[in-house]
Design goal:
6-stranded mixed β-sheet, 435 residues, alpha/beta, 3 domains, 15 helices
Length: 435
């Protein structure tokens, strides 16, 4: 048995793996993630070991188990004798999708899963166990995905909005929808579709705060309640969820596109004053995300789409020239949630063209662009007659750009440092617009 240094603040994970190679791999993943590891090589005394060690989660690898050990493990699972959440790793194509019995959670996944997928599942199971301990009711859970069900979500949203109303606070909802999910079911079957739902639920549970409420809204739709979160904060969370699911790499054949999600964000009281309207606004934002190409996050607006696009309906129009998808997505979401209309360009040439044709109120240009440099794009934009009085701001890595004098010489009004401070971005933009 291998045991890491004990810690009262860390979650304890018991790894049972007869195969040394599998055991070492799992132990390394557990320890590197900061958990307290306890490791055994045999399953025959599993119930007694759990009572002695009192772990928060048990991970059992079937790799290298004898037929007798597999039979005993199957019996323990079927009889629900395991008193703590248990994750069983199997390589025999077992189609089990997991279930909850009382306060004991049992789940299965492929032995060949990557470290990222394994740890996402571990974090999700620990989150469910913690929540279940607090609410002591499996009836509040969706049996397939283990997140909260629609009924509990409806009740909780009303409570959270009433609390926000009473104390003058904000609350946001992130609606999450799997892109082209019906096609996944039609092509690969509902069992595969269930696996995709389960992976997404794991990502949502493992990537949100314990105070956030993750629920299955219906079909392939999930929704996350973010108490005391304003629109810009919710936008950052949504983008993190979208990116985390994409990085799980869910696909079904070599060369096929990865399954993605679209997210819609709405905030009380910015976009709605009641739960029904808040959900409708979040759902409309998801619809916009899908209509704009899927695999993106969109913030709802208090007015209709046409009103939002019309002149004077926003705090201003900003052209964002940035070739990094993540940085561009985060900046765009934060600015949109603050009421700005955002035009996005993925390279310098497109940025110059859009500045000429769209006449934005502010241009933000990343200096580290591929192809045409950010400095050259800035120079060409500032030299345009129609852009003479429009501020152009650099987006740069580090506190102070190395070529600060060159930026000033070409007429750049200032700079915003990366990584982007999401709490400061809107106020920084406002200052440049007021110049």
């Amino acid at each position: 048995m291998t045991d890491s240094a004990s810690s009262s603040t860390r979650r304890k994970i018991l790894v049972v793996a007869p195969d040394d190679h599998a055991g070492e791999r799992l132990a390394r993943w557990v320890v590197d993630s900061g958990y307290h590891l306890v490791r055994y090589n045999e399953v025959r005394r599993l119930v007694e070991i759990i009572e002695e060690e009192d772990p928060d989660l048990v991970v059992v690898s079937l790799e290298g188990m004898s037929s007798d050990e597999r039979t005993k493990m199957a019996a323990l699972c079927s009889e629900s004798e395991l008193p703590v959440p248990t994750l069983v790793l199997t390589n025999d194509g077992d189609g089990k999708t997991g279930f909850i019995r009382g306060e004991c959670s049992l789940d299965w996944m492929d032995e060949a899963a990557s470290a990222e997928k394994f740890l996402t599942r571990v974090r999700a199971m620990l989150r469910v166990a913690s929540d279940a301990h607090q609410d002591s009711s499996a009836a509040k859970r969706d049996q397939l995905t283990k997140v909260y069900n629609r009924r509990y979500f409806d009740e909780r949203l009303e409570m959270e909005i009433e609390r926000a109303r009473r104390y003058g606070r904000k609350i946001s909802c992130v609606m999450v929808d799997i892109d082209e999910f019906k096609q996944v079911n039609a092509t690969y079957g509902h069992q595969t579709g269930d696996s995709v739902l389960k992976i997404l639920a794991d990502v949502l549970l493992s990537s949100t705060r314990t105070s956030d409420i993750v629920s299955r809204y219906g079909g392939e739709e999930f929704v996350v309640i973010l108490p005391e979160a304003a629109g810009d904060e919710a936008a950052v969370v949504a983008e993190r969820l979208r990116r985390a699911f994409e990085e799980c790499g869910v696909c079904f054949a070599k060369g096929e596109a990865v399954v993605t999600i679209s997210c819609g964000i709405a905030t009380y009281p910015d976009h709605a004053n009641d739960s029904a309207t808040l959900l409708r606004m979040a759902d409309s934002a998801v619809f916009r995300a899908k209509s704009e190409g899927r695999n993106r996050c969109v913030v709802a607006f208090s007015d209709s789409d046409n009103d939002f696009e019309s002149e004077g309906s926003t705090a201003g129009t900003i052209l964002l020239v940035e070739d990094d998808d993540y940085d561009r997505g985060i900046a765009s979401l934060v600015l949109r949630s603050s009421g700005y209309k955002v035009l996005e360009a993925t390279d310098g040439e497109l940025g110059v063209s859009m500045a000429k044709s769209k006449h934005p109120d502010l241009v933000i240009v990343d200096l580290q662009l591929t192809g045409m440099s950010g400095l050259e794009a800035t120079r060409q934009i500032i030299q345009m007659e129609e852009m003479r009085d429009i501020p152009v701001v650099a987006l740069t890595t580090g506190e102070v750009p190395d070529n600060l004098k060159e930026l000033a010489r070409v007429g750049c009004r200032g700079y915003i440092s990366k990584p982007i401070d999401t709490n400061m971005l809107a106020s920084q933009v406002q200052l440049y617009l007021k110049e």
